[in-house]
Amino acid sequence: MKKSTIQAFILAAALFAACTTDEPKEVVSGGHPVEVSLSFALAEVDDPQVTVEAANPSEAASSPSKTASTSTPAQVEVLLQASEASSPLKVGYVTRHTTTPTGNVAHLRTGTSLSNVWVLQFDSTLTTGATTTAGACVAAKYIGTATTGDNLNPTLLTGTGQVIYVIANGPAAGTINTGTYTLSTFQSSAYFSGSITGDDNVPYIGRIEGGTTIEENGEVTASGAIPTITLYRIAAKISLNLSFNVTGYTLLSVKLYNKPTYMYYLNGASSSPFPTGSTTTITTLDGTTANVVPGTPASGTYVWYTGENKRGTNATVTDPYDKYSANAPDDFCSYIVITAANSVNTTKQYSYTLYLGENGTSDFNVKRNWDYTLDVSISGDESTQDAYVATDNRIAPVAANSYIVTPSTSISLPVGIKGNGGDVAGTGLSISNDLSTASLGVLWQTADGLVTVGAINTTTKMATITASATPGNAVIALYSDAGQTTILWSWHIWVTDYNPFSSAANTTYTITNTASASYTFMDRNLGATNITVGDVGIKGLMYQWGRKDPFPGSTTIDGLIEPTLYGAKTVVTKTPVAASNNLANSILNPATVYYGINNANTGYDWYTNVNDRSSQNDALWGGASTSAPTDKTIFDPCPAGWRVAAWRGGASPWSAIGANGVATSNVGSFANFGVTWSVISAGFWPAAGYRSTSSGALDGVGSNGTYWSASPNGSFGYSLTFDSYTVYPSYNSYRANGFSVRCVQE
Fold first, then answer.
1. Where in the sequence is the domain holding 8, given as residue range(s)?
2. Which of 383, 634, 651, 664 is geometrically suited to a Cys-Cys bond with 655, CB 3.0 to 4.6 A?
3. Strands 402-405 and 487-495
């Protein structure tokens, strides 16, 4: 057996540590070892071959049809309703799963070679002296490889009331013993955590139902009959057959979200929900790429293998358009997100969210031993996608707080979505999407006429933003009134010909930290208008930790000169924070730098003036845990597909540069008002300076490089900080400071 195969399949360390295959010292009711013969087979998989037939969209709209060749059509449902047929997004759901009744049209998986096969024997009651143990493991026999159709011949113990399990494609030899768990702990806690690369190495489990008797002659019976153990897959298989053909758009990613953290061998076989919804049992972070992919994002088949995630149903969902987050039974339902970007304005993106389940409407369950196949077609052009944003809830523009606009072009900005549309729970805010009286205007811009804004389409909640031929930065604001006095939200417009998704050399850099976490960084600061070393345009913009809105820097590469701005706000306002929760004020006043009050517990923070650490908000950029970030937040300042870099694995994104306080000369060259690193390949990082935490004034331009991470440390925020002498990859900085941001890909 290949070593890589053995190592890939493990059970929880708490269950299967320090294991052997020795015979137990205790026997069951005076039982003794006997060789038995167990026959086994793989569960049948129903394959109803259901397809959707429609000669063209107009025919499908008037009379969508279904055809099926199966004796069990209730086990599958494919939905293409009249309303869906004309949408650019068409989805067919096909499900296949194990059937036990006889007479079904099925394909038996025969001739399959299995690896890491185990036979586990549990006794219903084991008496040792005065101690009675329920469900003790009395035999753990490693078989190794086996082929369906053959028999298994382990040595077990004679006795009655026995429970026998067979595991295949599971843990390696020497990793299960007879004394570290009971039947109860095995059933509730044993899980598979290896990688699956195809159907041939999916883990299986089977058991003999009912009380089992092992006779003196080695005969194994249950309810008086000699049983065959049927092995069932503990995984669900999810296949996405994708045809993507949207004119002017490029496929960016295909990911599965809310994938269960564990793939249990037995636990969760009862009704939904399972597992219990929490960030410890459901992997919501970043999305999971497919186990099998067609190479770079492209049309083709994507395959995931996942543990069951049974979340329930919602009978009120009768139209595929309405199978989306608002109608899901809870926040932990599994779903696939397909993301595509405009081939020119790459941060103008669309997402297509497809919730899993037995059908395209009411069912949101992912069950073990089921095949879920989604046949997905996405077509049309940008105007087609825009037209369906208001009616097909599965289609949405990918929203953000920053949008790249190529000079002399326009984008349609989704002004009905604040930030990325993420959660604002715990912030004390209520973000309204009511645009009935809203208007849009330029708050500030770095050049007169840099951008112009169009009227809001109240049906699609979109507005056209047009850029001039000049690179630069602007902030546009959505107002609650035509007089433009109260700001509802604001967005950064980055006018640049930079395409961070381009495959061209040096448009991004990959850095791996000391915890082996990989980051794909942009090759420039957020808001930079070029990457010309020594030019003022290389510096980009400045951000207070946790805020979504930028502030411009000095107009010189090494001086402290405030820029001249154009628009409703021609200068940056600076004021001390005076509220216990200043978040709402920061949204109302995106051009105001709030400089912090020096409190003993919170230090300088723009968010609060309360002398209490608990009054701070660590989650604003999703990096509250230094182990791994949460999803991108509604306050993240980066464009769609990008986010502020967060700590991972307990290490800074820049930890590979060296320890705090390392000499700059040991890790890079400080010249031309910035650093080119020698220990990592990451391009040039300018010393753009910062805005002071105690006044909001410019400082350190040309001599200090300061870059925020999304992760806090106590009352501070972690940053990368350097000058011509020293580098600190994990520096504690006051959160009211205005630092640079270098975005990383989500």
1. 3-43+109-233
2. 651
3. parallel
